[in-house]
Specification:
448 residues; alpha/beta; Enolase-like, domain 1; seven-stranded mixed sheet; five-stranded antiparallel sheet; 13 helices; 21 strands; NAD; GSHR/TRXR-like; nucleotide-binding; Pyr_nuc-diS_OxRdtase
Length: 448
C-alpha cells in the first residue's frame, strides 16, 4: 500500500483553497497548504477587499463635495492618498492574520513557499522538500493580463494600484470590463483626470447593456472620458517623466499612469501540471468536470485557475463542495445559474439572472419592466444622476428571469433579488409585496 504524508495538499491559500482546507480538516483529513506570496489570495490581498475599501473612500469624496448643501461646513477639504493607502494595507494585513489563524486553528500545515506538482501524488517545494499527497487541489487563482506591446513594462496592473506612492494627476485605464470601470470611478472620484480606452465599441460586455450605457452617460457627466474602438499600440516615457499612450487609430494621450485592466488569466504556468498530465484549455485554465476533477484522478482544481467563473464566492463554494464530496462523503454540487454579480463603479451596477439579449434567445415571449428615477439622496444633494432598474419576465409563466440595477446600493439590493429569481418567483409575487418606503429598492415591487 502507498503511504501518503497528507490526505490533501492544497496549492494556493486564497479563498477557495483556504475553505477547502478548513472543511477537509474538519472531516479528519490531514491537510497541508502552500502559498508563495501571502495567505488570503487575490481577493483579500490585492483584489476585491482592498478595492472595495478604495470604493468606499472614493464614494465619500462625493459626499464631501456636496456636504455644504446638507449643512456641513469643511474649512479644509483635503485628500491624503498615502494615509488611505496605508490604512487599507494595514487592514489587509489584519485579514491575512485572520486567514492564517483559521488554518492554524484547524491544524493545517502551512508552507510559505512555492509548490509544484511532480506527479499525480507528489509535490515539490522550493526548499527541496518532497511531499506525497493522496489528493492534490490546485487553487492558485489568476493574474492580471498584460498587453504585449512596446512599453508594456511602463504600465501597472490592478496588483500595483494599492501600492502607488502617490496618486497620478492623469490616468488612462485600458479595458472595458468590471475592473477597468471600477478603477476608473475610483480614480475620477479622487480627482484624477481619467480616460477609459477599450478596443471594443461597448463597455461591460456580457452585462445588461442598458445599464452599461447608463454608466457611460453618468461617467461622462462626472468627467470620465471614454475612447471606444481604441487598441493601445505603445507606451513611451517622455523626458519629463510623463507617459504617452498611442493607439492604433492614431490617437495619442499624455498621461501619468497607464493601467492594464484587460482581464485575468489562469495562474497555471510552471506548476508542473504536465507531470501529472493535467489538461488545460486554450487560456491555460485547468479543465475540470462538474466535481472539479481534472484529467488526473488525484488532482482537482477550484476557483479562477479553472477559468470557469472568476468570482471569489464561486471559488469558496467550489472549495466547500470539493471537501464535502471527497472527505465528507456528501453529494455536494455547485449551481452556477443565477449568480449575482456587481460592478463597484460610480454608481454601482448589479445583476442577477438573464440579460434581455440572453432571455430573447432562450424564450419566445418575454416582457420588460423598467424604472428610471432619481434616488432621494441624489435629489437632496443636487445630483442629476438617475438610477435605472430593469426586470425581465417570461411572458408565458410570469417568472422573473433577470434583474439589473444601476444606482446607489444596487449590489446590496440585488443579493436578495437573486434569491427571488432562484426561487422562481413571478412578477405577480413582486407586485403583491408591499413597498418599503422611502427606498430605492421599492422600485422593484412598483414596476408596471
Amino acid at each position: 500500500m502507498t503511504t501518503y504524508d497528507v490526505d490533501l495538499f492544497v496549492i494556493g491559500a486564497g479563498s477557495g483553497g483556504v475553505r477547502a482546507s478548513r472543511v477537509a480538516a474538519s472531516y479528519g483529513a490531514s491537510v497541508a497548504i502552500a502559498e508563495e506570496y501571502r495567505v488570503g489570495g487575490t481577493c483579500v490581498i490585492r483584489g476585491c477587499v482592498p478595492k472595495k475599501m478604495l470604493y468606499y473612500a472614493a464614494d465619500f469624496a462625493s459626499d464631501v463635495a456636496k456636504a455644504d448643501r446638507l449643512g456641513w461646513q469643511f474649512t479644509d477639504k483635503k485628500f491624503d492618498w498615502p494615509h488611505l493607502r496605508d490604512v487599507i494595507l494595514s487592514d489587509v494585513q489584519r485579514l491575512e492574520g485572520l486567514y492564517t489563524q483559521t488554518l492554524n486553528n484547524n491544524n493545517i500545515k502551512i508552507y510559505q513557499e512555492r509548490a509544484v506538482i511532480e506527479g499525480p501524488h507528489q509535490i515539490g517545494l522550493a526548499s527541496g522538500k518532497k511531499i506525497k499527497a493522496r489528493h492534490i487541489l490546485v487553487a492558485v487563482g489568476a493574474e492580471p493580463a498584460r498587453l504585449d506591446i512596446p512599453g508594456a513594462e511602463l504600465a501597472v496592473t490592478s496588483n500595483e494600484m494599492f501600492l502607488l506612492p502617490e496618486l497620478p494627476k492623469r490616468a488612462v485605464v485600458i479595458g472595458g470590463g468590471y475592473i477597468a470601470n471600477e478603477f476608473a470611478g475610483i480614480l475620477n472620484s479622487f480627482g484624477v483626470k481619467t480616460v477609459v480606452a477599450t478596443h471594443g465599441d461597448i463597455i461591460l460586455r456580457g452585462y445588461e447593456q442598458e445599464m452599461a450605457q447608463r454608466l457611460v452617460e453618468i461617467g461622462q457627466a462626472h468627467g470620465i472620458h471614454y475612447q471606444f474602438n481604441a487598441a493601445l499600440s505603445s507606451i513611451v516615457r517622455e523626458n519629463d517623466g510623463s507617459l504617452t499612450a498611442t493607439f492604433s487609430n492614431g490617437t495619442k494621450i499624455e498621461t501619468d499612469l497607464v493601467l492594464f485592466a484587460i482581464g485575468r488569466i489562469p495562474n497555471s504556468k510552471n506548476l508542473g501540471l504536465e507531470a501529472a498530465h493535467v489538461a488545460l484549455d486554450k487560456k491555460g485554465g485547468i479543465i475540470v468536470n462538474e466535481e472539479n476533477h481534472s484529467s488526473c484522478s488525484s488532482i482537482y482544481a477550484v476557483g479562477d485557475v479553472t477559468d470557469r467563473v472568476q468570482l471569489t464566492p464561486v471559488a469558496i463554494r467550489e472549495g466547500q463542495a470539493f471537501a464535502d464530496r471527497v472527505f465528507g462523503n456528501k453529494k455536494a454540487s455547485v449551481d452556477y445559474t443565477t449568480i449575482p454579480t456587481a460592478v463597484f463603479s460610480h454608481p454601482p451596477l448589479a445583476s442577477a439572472g438573464l440579460t434581455e439579449e440572453e432571455a430573447r434567445a432562450e424564450y419566445k415571449n418575454i416582457k420588460i419592466y423598467k424604472s428610471s428615477f432619481r434616488p432621494m439622496r441624489n435629489a437632496l444633494i443636487g445630483s442629476d444622476d438617475r438610477a435605472l432598474y430593469k426586470m425581465i419576465v417570461d411572458g408565458h409563466s410570469d417568472r422573473v428571469l433577470g434583474l439589473h440595477l444601476i444606482g446607489p446600493d444596487s449590489p446590496e439590493i440585488v443579493q436578495l433579488a437573486a434569491v427571488a429569481i432562484k426561487a422562481g418567483l413571478t412578477k405577480q409575487d413582486f407586485n403583491d409585496t408591499i413597498a418599503l418606503h422611502p427606498t430605492s429598492a421599492e422600485e422593484l415591487v412598483l414596476l408596471r
